[in-house]
């Protein structure tokens, strides 16, 4: 049952990156859209994520609950030594969600709408940036559980070039996902071409940010190249991601957008697979070569069994309802369009 829990943990992280990441990316795209196009972008984005935007955070909640219940030592270590980026990320989620609600559902339309818009856009950048910082800090080997001062324990554990580079890469990935997803959400050819252009730009930025991650890893003496290309799974995953990237660009160039979402999601999945396979089962690398393992630092057998069954039974009830929610709103949008 331990491996069932681990699969749910990995899947919840992936789905949060794919769905929640596109959610954040919509705000990023809106931030970097010219003022005379922001209204159209906002309306398209609302039609796409408005009905289900809160459901995307379910995957983050599942991941946190799994760590809290099944891997308390890992949860405790991360929540203590990475509490600053964690708090900023959670504040970003709260601020972004609040601004999204008020700017779309506020009964009074006044100058506060401008503030809501700014909060939504900037929080959409800040949140995935610190999500990336947390992910980078977990594998950077900079968390010092024996630190004797505040800066070493709670600041330098996450504030370094490698984690910052991964934060920028995460922001670029979110923008890329959102641009690709939004292409199919509009029937206006002008807006469609605009989203295609943004998909190209954000993809280029993601590639540049990815290169910066490798540069930062070299500066910080982190063997990222060995982690990625030192095993068959990593080489295969990166190869498939590269091939899908070429296909994606070909389809964008020829205006064929039907499978773009699948290709974009596949690329992100391959990236996550590459970065997690090399370290499994070690989920947190500590300073000095120590680590926290999903196998060695798991809860007792009874706890893991109860958690595993809860996840399995819960998915039977929750997932069909979630898929039906998405289907019903997609069907509603299709009927309105026709």
From TrEMBL:
Which species does the entry assign this protein to?
Answer: Chitinophaga costaii
- Locations listed in the record: Cell membrane
GO biological process terms, semicolon-separated: aerobic electron transport chain
Membrane topology per record:
Multi-pass membrane protein
Q: What PANTHER family does the record point to?
A: CYTOCHROME BD2 SUBUNIT II
Question: Which GO MF terms does the UniProt record name?
Answer: electron transfer activity; oxidoreductase activity, acting on diphenols and related substances as donors, oxygen as acceptor
Q: Which InterPro entries match?
A: Cyt-d_oxidase_su2 (IPR003317)
Keyword set for this entry? Answer: Cell membrane, Membrane, Transmembrane, Transmembrane helix
From the Swiss-Prot or TrEMBL record, give the protein name.
Cytochrome bd-I ubiquinol oxidase subunit 2 apoprotein
Please tell me one Gene Ontology term that the record gives under cellular component: cytochrome complex
Record family assignment: Belongs to the cytochrome ubiquinol oxidase subunit 2 family.
User: Has UniProt tagged this entry with the keyword Zinc?
Assistant: no
Cell inner membrane found in the keyword field: no
Give TM segment ranges: 6-32, 53-74, 80-99, 119-140, 160-183, 204-222, 228-252, 259-277, 306-327
């Amino acid at each position: 049952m331990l491996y069932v829990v681990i699969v749910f943990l990995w899947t919840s992280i992936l789905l949060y990156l794919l769905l929640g990441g596109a959610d954040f990316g919509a705000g990023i795209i809106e931030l970097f859209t010219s003022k005379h196009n922001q209204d159209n972008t906002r309306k398209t984005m609302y039609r796409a994520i408005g009905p289900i935007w809160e459901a995307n955070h379910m995957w983050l909640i599942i991941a946190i609950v799994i760590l809290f219940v099944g891997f308390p030592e890992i949860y405790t270590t991360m929540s203590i030594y990475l509490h600053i980026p964690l708090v900023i990320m959670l504040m970003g989620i709260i601020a972004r969600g609040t601004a999204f609600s008020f700017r779309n559902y506020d009964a009074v339309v006044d100058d506060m709408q401008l503030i809501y818009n700014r909060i939504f856009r900037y929080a959409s950048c800040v949140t995935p940036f610190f999500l990336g910082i947390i992910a980078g800090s977990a594998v950077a080997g900079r968390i010092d559980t024996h630190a004797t001062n505040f800066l070493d324990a709670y600041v330098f554990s996450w504030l370094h070039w490698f984690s910052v580079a991964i934060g920028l890469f995460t922001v670029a990935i979110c923008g890329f996902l959102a641009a690709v997803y939004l292409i199919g959400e509009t029937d206006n050819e002008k807006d469609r071409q605009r989203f295609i252009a943004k998909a190209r730009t954000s993809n280029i930025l993601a590639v540049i940010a990815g290169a910066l991650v490798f540069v930062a890893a070299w500066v910080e003496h982190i063997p990222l190249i060995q982690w990625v290309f030192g095993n068959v799974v990593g080489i295969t995953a990166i190869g498939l991601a590269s091939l899908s990237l070429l296909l994606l660009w070909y389809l964008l160039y020829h205006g064929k957008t039907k499978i773009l979402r699948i290709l974009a999601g596949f690329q992100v999945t391959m990236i996550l697979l590459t970065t997690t396979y090399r370290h499994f089962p070690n989920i947190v690398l500590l300073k000095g070569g120590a680590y926290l393992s999903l196998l060695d630092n798991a809860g007792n057998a009874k706890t893991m069994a109860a958690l595993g069954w809860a996840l399995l039974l819960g998915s039977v009830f929750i997932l069909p309802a979630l898929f039906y929610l998405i289907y019903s709103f997609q069907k509603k949008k299709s009927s309105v369009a026709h």
